[in-house]
């Protein structure tokens, strides 16, 4: 067996052996899955399809699922099918053979009007349905597969080995203030503004958890393009400006007159949209071949979907990009060569913070999403106990350890932790480090109260004034976390008689009609007009005024932690590097901001019952090996900025 780079590693739930995915040196040829014991002894290998990119076990360990990406050759002359292989691992790994492998391909019959037809040959667009990442539900009945480049997700019946649903994901309207982005790396400023652009979510990582009998999926909307020698969909706006005729019916916040005025005033210049990378492979074109819409890569966000029907219940809007701008402006949308060599704002023309990985963990009766930001670095933490109303709680970023580009994230529950406290193990591909964070305390409260905040669009939203109160002396005793809320229930009896009432059957941040599309457009753009955001805007681009948020002071502490309304508080996070076996506790005392710095986020976590999510019972050594392997894999795969 000859193999190229390793792409993924998974540890069997019993901890006795691991599985590795190993593509062939020619990625269009069949690859392998290789099994090793926990002592590193070779056990077996099986042949699978072209470019096995990710492996994961079902929670009971009886099946191993393999994402067969099937990428085309660089000259685009060979383009294998994408598929998922299901390996029966109920027996001993050393006795496995290819009769235990069942492969389910993605074919023409899985294409539908919700999925974009990617590639130069529309009749072969199904060949670009390329599985990227897989997660299984707790029961092991279904697997959920991200299909990144085609902006889709698939649901796989594991027992029957068939895809029961393949669904295109909605587009994101960046003309709305809550979806504003920084679209240029050459405008000389860090500025989020509404722009006439639709964004493809294009998720990479995916995870799941159970709530009230429903499986919820979390997707990390990184973005990716097909960019090969034989075919490339990726161009900069300025390079196709003569072929663009924007149509206002695709955008929520513009009239045709306003769009025409923007174009006349230099919309396609480098300091506006000229540098933004967009796709040429979409259906938003008129009979003359003109582009009526600009479509870019990445949602710059994470989203939550229902596993039952793949409908979206939440998207984080521009919350991540805005918080990085406020918390860590000196590394905003940075493009790194290493920790000390970076270009601030260098990824704004591409995918912004590049939300790549996502992990779910439960602490007490609260469930959290840990969101890895590949380019800017660090991990955002959101309370997702209520899947329709996640709340930002903390941003983990360790400048002193010079960690750059989180690739793999593993949550270790308090029960499995050697310290008795929950931990987060993160591998960083560019810096070549693996760090362990001991989560002493996460923002929010298990005794929090529900919020009656109206989730409708605000025409006159408040703007963060960026002022701070006096800092707390670093030697002071750590105070309790404080919450500031206008919620009338705070301090009262806030028991929820019917928790199901908090789950919206028709989420307000997803458009279910096609009124914004012409007859040639088959993918419904999403209406994210009510998605929660960190900071709103007084002016939009349609008024010919750029929108700039008040800059908050720069922070250079080893670990930045903020609660959901932007207020900083004292916290303790224990962190170790894999080069040091001693848990070195750092009490990081931060100054507390003025409570008038109000955000549209609720400042209280929803009081909900336990999710009932079952965490994987992995020993710490297994998690460390997993992180180290993902680190090595990621370092081989990282692309260069063009």
TrEMBL record:
- Where would you find this protein in the cell? Secreted, Cell wall
Q: What is its main location?
A: secreted
Which SUPFAM superfamilies has this protein been placed in? Answer: 3-carboxy-cis,cis-mucoante lactonizing enzyme (SSF75011)
Pfam families documented for this protein:
choice_anch_I
Q: How does it sit in the membrane?
A: Peptidoglycan-anchor
Task: Output compositional bias ranges, type Acidic residues.
Answer: 465-474
Q: Where is the composition biased (Polar residues)?
A: 505-524, 532-551, 591-612
Task: Report what the protein is called.
Answer: Choice-of-anchor I family protein
């Amino acid at each position: 067996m000859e193999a190229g780079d390793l792409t993924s590693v998974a540890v069997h739930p019993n901890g006795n052996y691991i599985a590795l995915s190993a593509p062939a040196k020619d990625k269009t040829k069949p690859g392998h899955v290789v099994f090793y014991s926990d002592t590193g002894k070779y056990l077996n290998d099986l042949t699978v399809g072209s470019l096995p990119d990710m492996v994961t076990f079902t929670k009971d360990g009886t099946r191993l699922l393999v994402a067969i990406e099937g990428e085309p050759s660089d000259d685009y002359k060979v383009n294998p099918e994408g598929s998922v292989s299901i390996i029966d691992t109920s027996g001993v790994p050393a006795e496995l053979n290819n009769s235990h492998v069942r492969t389910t391909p993605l074919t023409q019959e899985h294409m539908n009007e919700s999925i974009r037809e990617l590639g130069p040959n529309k009749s072969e667009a199904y060949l670009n349905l390329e599985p990227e990442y897989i997660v299984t539900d707790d029961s092991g009945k279904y697997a959920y597969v991200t299909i990144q480049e085609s902006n889709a997700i698939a649901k796989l019946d594991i027992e029957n080995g068939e895809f029961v649903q393949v669904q295109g994901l909605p587009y994101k309207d960046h003309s709305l203030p809550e979806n504003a982005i920084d679209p240029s790396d050459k405008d000389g400023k860090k500025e989020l503004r509404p722009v006439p652009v639709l964004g493809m979510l294009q998720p990479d990582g995916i995870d799941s958890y159970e709530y009230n009998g429903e499986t919820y999926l979390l997707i990390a909307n990184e973005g990716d393009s097909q960019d090969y020698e034989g075919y490339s969909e990726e161009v900069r706006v300025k390079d196709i400006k003569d072929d663009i005729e924007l149509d206002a019916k695709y955008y929520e916040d513009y009239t045709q007159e306003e769009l025409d005025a923007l174009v006349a005033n230099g919309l396609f210049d480098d300091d506006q949209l000229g540098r933004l990378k967009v796709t040429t492979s979409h259906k938003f074109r008129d009979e003359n071949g003109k582009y009526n819409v600009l479509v870019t890569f990445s949602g710059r966000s994470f989203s939550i979907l229902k596993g039952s029907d793949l409908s979206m219940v939440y998207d984080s809007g521009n919350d991540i990009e805005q918080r990085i701008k406020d918390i860590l402006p000196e590394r905003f949308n940075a493009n790194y060569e290493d920790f000390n060599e970076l270009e601030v704002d260098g990824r704004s023309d591409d995918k912004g913070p590049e939300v790549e990985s996502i992990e779910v963990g439960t602490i007490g009766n609260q469930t959290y999403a840990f969101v890895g930001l590949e380019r800017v670095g660090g991990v955002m933490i959101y309370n997702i106990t209520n899947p329709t109303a996640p709340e930002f709680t903390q941003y983990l970023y360790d400048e002193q350890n010079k960690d750059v580009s989180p690739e793999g994230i593993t949550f270790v529950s308090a029960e499995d932790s050697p310290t008795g406290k929950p931990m987060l193990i993160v591998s960083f591909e560019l810096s070549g480090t693996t760090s362990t964070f001991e989560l002493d305390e996460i923002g929010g409260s298990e005794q929090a109260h529900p919020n009656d905040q109206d989730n409708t669009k605000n025409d006159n939203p408040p703007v963060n004034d960026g002022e701070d109160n006096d800092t707390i002396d670093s030697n002071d005793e750590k105070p309790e976390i404080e919450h500031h809320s206008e919620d009338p229930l705070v301090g009262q009896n806030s028991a929820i008689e019917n928790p199901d009432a908090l789950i919206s059957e028709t989420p307000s941040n997803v458009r279910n009609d096609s009124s914004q599309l012409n007859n040639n457009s088959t993918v419904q753009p999403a209406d994210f007009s009510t998605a929660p955001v960190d900071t709103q805007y007084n002016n939009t681009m349609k008024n010919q005024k750029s929108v700039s948020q008040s800059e908050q002071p720069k922070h250079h502490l080893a670990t930045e932690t903020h609660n959901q309304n932007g207020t900083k508080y004292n916290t303790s996070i224990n962190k170790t590097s894999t080069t040091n076996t001693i848990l070195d506790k750092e009490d990081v005392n931060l100054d507390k901001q003025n409570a008038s710095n109000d955000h549209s986020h609720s400042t209280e976590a929803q009081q909900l019952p336990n999710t009932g999510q079952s965490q994987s019972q992995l020993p710490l050594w297994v998690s460390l090996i997993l992180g180290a392997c993902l680190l090595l894999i990621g370092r081989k795969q990282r692309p260069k900025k063009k």
